[in-house]
């Protein structure tokens, strides 16, 4: 072997060794280092609070019952100070969404009769509330609070008050929510007696004095004033009847049956008063009665 071939062979061997070293270094450098690997961190679950929400769309004038509201898990960092909560400190969900729902139901069952629920049950909605919207006291009004009567009165109706006594108010058995007829009794011209007529029928009673609800288990309410819900076009009828009662008569409220709640409501058509009498007529030995109108 001559010198040239020997040099070429040595160069080839050296290049092969160098290439092998370079390739090994690249491969080893790509292997992950156990010491440098960062451990995986599971993000912490957000604390959740229990917020009272509407179960359905609630229109203006709706009186709330326990079936209208429910507890719902709500992110603590999204709470508003106006929301009604169960008062417990926010806590992490037990096991995902299902755990939060289960916890909400558990909380609702334990707090159903608590102070938080009592804030809204029985109140009247004065601004529309959407389903699943958090309840706020700003959109509710309770008996005795400002604007209560204006919320209770139905659209197109008016609230008017009449004086009542035990005698003219069905012995005190008329309660808020009942239906009554308004009867006017006036003295006949010349003082020969009294005549009476129903001026309004099937009228809803809104309150007795300032109480819009009877006390628990109360069967009677004795007051000096009854507030009635009157159609806009009938307010003049009641005003005229009150004026007539003050000068020469009496205004009486007659309690109606609950079975009549769906009957027509409002003024009663008044026809001309006719003075009638019965006359017995004898003709050809036969007698008969004839009604004569004057």
Structural features, described:
By secondary structure, the protein is α+β, with helices and mostly antiparallel strands. Helices cover 23% and strands 28% of the residues. The protein is built from five helices and twelve strands. Strands 5, 6, 7, 8, 9 and 10 form a six-stranded antiparallel sheet that branches. Strands 1-2 form a two-stranded antiparallel ribbon. The longest helix is centred in the N-terminal third of the chain and has 28 residues, at 3-30. The protein is rod-shaped, with a radius of gyration of 42 Å. The chain starts with a helix and ends with a strand.
Offer a few descriptive terms.
rod-shaped, six-stranded antiparallel beta sheet, SAF, alpha+beta, 294 residues, two-stranded antiparallel ribbon, Pilus_assmbl_Flp-typ_CpaB, RcpC_dom, Pilus assembly protein CpaB, single chain
